[in-house]
Amino acid sequence: MITKPFRAPSFVRPGSTAGEPAAKKRRISSDAPSRQNSSDRTPSVPIENSAPLPPASLPSSDEQYYSVLWRKYTTKKNKTWDGDGILAVVGGSATLTDSDSGKEMGRSACTRPLLPGSTLSVGGKELEIDGVIKKEDYLSGRVFLNASAAAPAQQPKRTEPGYKPLTAGILQSKRKEPIVIDDDEDVVEHERASDKKRFKMPLLSTTVLPKTNSPLPQPRHDPDQSNALVMKRLTSVPKGKQIVDVVVDPILAKHLRDHQREGVQFLYECVMGMRCEGEGAIMADEMGLGKTLQTIALLWTLMKQNPIYESAPVVGKALIVCPAGLVDNWRREFRKWLGNERISVFVADSKNRRISSFTKGKVYNVMVVGYEMLRVVQADLQRGKIDIVIADEGHRLKTANNKAMQAIQSLNTERRIILSGTPLQNDLGEFFTAIDFVNPGLLGQRAAFKRTFEAPIMRSRQPEASESELEKGEERWKELVSQTSRFMIRRTAEVLSKYLPPKTEHIVFCRPTMAQANAYKNILSSPIFTAALGSTDMALQLINVLKKICNSPALLKSKTDTEDTPSEMLQAVLALIPPNILNSNASSTKLRVLDSLIHRLHTTTDEKIVIVSNYTKTLDMIECLLNALSYTFLRLDGSTPANKRQALVEKFNKTNKSVSFAFLLSAKSGGVGLNLIGASRIVLFDIDWNPATDLQAMARIHRDGQKLPCKVYRFLVQGALDEKIFQRQVMKMSLANAVVDNKASASSFSKDELRDLFRLDERETCQTHDLLQCPCGCKGVPEVKVDPITTTDTDQDDEEDEEDPYPSLKRASDVEMHEQESRIRARRQAKQPKLTLLMEYHHLDTKHVRGAKKAETTGLSEEYVVGEQKVDMDAAALSLDDDVFLEVLKEQDCRVGFVLTKSTS
């Protein structure tokens, strides 16, 4: 019998030994051939240019960055990629980050070179290199932004009222028919490729279509008129339509200043979708630049005109949301600039809640409502159609869970504008909330923003930040500014220098009285202080107690029997302070300085003053002082009815000092939006953690209509909690004028930071000035001019390195530990340029002028001496630029220890 030769079974692969099958080789990708050498695999992404990359685009050997595709390890035959990522190879360590969320996904060692198409495993994920990323793109965070946020839009999102955005599926499909806009039905129709085509009249190749000579579009106002403000033209026009110039009504344009004209144009381009993908904007001009007038000019323009000829106006109904105290101010501004005959404004309040008059009627085009009332009328507003929302003092919308924000978002209005002189207050999280409110999704999700921008920027601001963290943080901040500048406009008060009188700001460091210092030290030496270091709640209570002591120890004691029973901590604190101090405000150093200032002001000038505090009890204390001096005053705080506040403001502005010499103002109730130009001086009696609160209050007098030079006084207790809060304010306002140091509450402090925060510095010198390491002689005029922008600490570091590292050699019992710690802490903080903003001020130690008297001389010029030492009073007067305050400082018993002064004159 003939048989076939033996043949090995098919499941036995060549190369196997002892009849065993060869081990299976893991397949890297579904479309890659099975090869012994994975490096020979064809790259999944074709490389257009195989030539070597230019040196500028190649990362350094120690730092390499790549875009990658990643997936979880799987044994499936057909594999797909799970997502895109960024791979950073630094110092032989590879870190994988998800592109969408910015979340770190894993780390592993990597020492071999990587090219497009290379594969590797990191953190249990399979990766394939897609391309090389420049270092500057990675550091800036640009690679983590989605495509919509990376490049500005070239075309406006919509140009017609009633426009409905197309779905993603429609946008991605290939259309064979153009979009047709129907004005009569006010809808958008479209034809898909798969839909039935419309009938078209057949035309011969020789057919000539008739031409019509249509008249040119005529704008509502003449764009060629002198001083005409013409908006930017659209770059595209719907089929069958024409573009017409949009010109601001001359009745408003003639009142606009140059920066205001620029602001109106900027807002118009934002809400028309010309600057970015969204239709929102943030106007972050500082206080007093006319944000209200610019908004009115924009709304009036949009309500009467459309860049598409013969189309309905862009805006039919506008909603303005603002603090309750500013509702009447908005109504008066509309009446002032447009009159009652041109526009009717509906004000929603407790007496007028018939919202249908605005949403359904044709009489009202603008509605003004307070943030609290908005939640009440939210359901009624949803029944109508709101075309644009203006959020005045929009920094109140701090969190995504804010009820006012949720009410506005429920209106489904795409055009949103935030007006705020201080859009950056405590942290970048609040800033992201504002950005996502006006242009949702433009910077991605909150979690991704926190990882990509907020965390690196905040880490770079820490004293122990490394060089790489500093570089990364600055690049991320620059990229964030670049992205937001497309829809946020910011101008400072410097643009008003040619319109307003000069302003002088004094940071007044008041030396604590003996009673204040003893009360302060008694608390810090008690068990209460030790307990507060281990409890966040007790630390917050202790901060409030020390702030009250800085104003006056008497504020700790309840003055009425109707008040709640003091807490256990407060009862323990009251036992540490003598009763005679608790029963009198005479121990308050700030009140003594205020007494001298208002006495000089009332007796030597005709000027009036505004006094601001964050606490009503402090206002009560100041009110008692004014009553004792028989000085007239008005008061506005949280108990003042909203419908009476503007009447108080107008009375103060229009009367002389015999009727109303002082105006007592609560920073929380009336610190924003009010125009108190009747006064030329303002005192901030206490300080707030948030610098925006103080900046808002300081701007109440330096506004349009002010005729006199303005003087601002900020009172601090030297060496106490006030000064520490001020230092943190400066840190927030410096470094690109951004608020990135999130230390607004005690829960953000470590134990060491809390100890430093509560410590009372009783040295004669000013701690803030010591931290600056300024070489001036503290006589008002710096000996060395320093540029706060270009100043570096290189020279200082070199000199410090050359010094003896041990300040002194003494016996342990002779060492002043507090002084030693202060010097070390000052050196460490001086290396971080957080307080360089104060180099713009003149620094004056009042010991050079306190108790100054005229010397007997036969010359024509006056000479002054302090004791037996001659002083240069002219230099001090020149730096202060305030004769009234200089006389206060010259008093023998003056409690002011140090002054920082900055003047625009």
Automatic annotation (TrEMBL):
It holds the Pfam family Helicase_C. Residues 272-441 form the Helicase ATP-binding domain. Residues 593-755 form the Helicase C-terminal domain. Residues 31-42 have a biased composition (Polar residues). InterPro entries: Helicase_ATP-bd, Helicase_C-like, P-loop_NTPase, SNF2-like_sf, SNF2/RAD54-like_C, SNF2_N, SNF2_RAD54_helicase_repair. One of its GO terms (cellular component) is nucleus. One of its GO terms (molecular function) is ATP binding. The keyword Protease does not apply. Residues 1-61, 785-829 are annotated as: Disordered. The keyword Transcription does not apply. CDD domains: DEXHc_RAD54 (cd18004), SF2_C_SNF (cd18793). Residues 794-805 have a biased composition (Acidic residues). This is DNA repair and recombination protein RAD26. It comes from Massarina eburnea CBS 473.64.
